[in-house]
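Item description
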Amino acid sequence: MILLATICSISGCQDDVETFDNKVYIDNDSKVGTILLKKEVESLERIIQTSVSKPAETDFVITCKAEPALVSTYNLACYDNAIILPEEN
């Protein structure tokens, strides 16, 4: 009886079903800092430390871009006062 209970508990803990997708995130402790944007510069490269929830099976590229609708969400989450620049800048 004890053997049967042990076998059932071990087989029930197998990790054969994924319950979530892998997500990329930027750790809040590693702030990017200030990035000076100039009109004549069309793109800017910067190394930003990112992580994934679980090991990735292949290499991938991350592209970041500003999303004006999320500035207030960012400010609430990070206790910050970031502003979005007008599009004409």
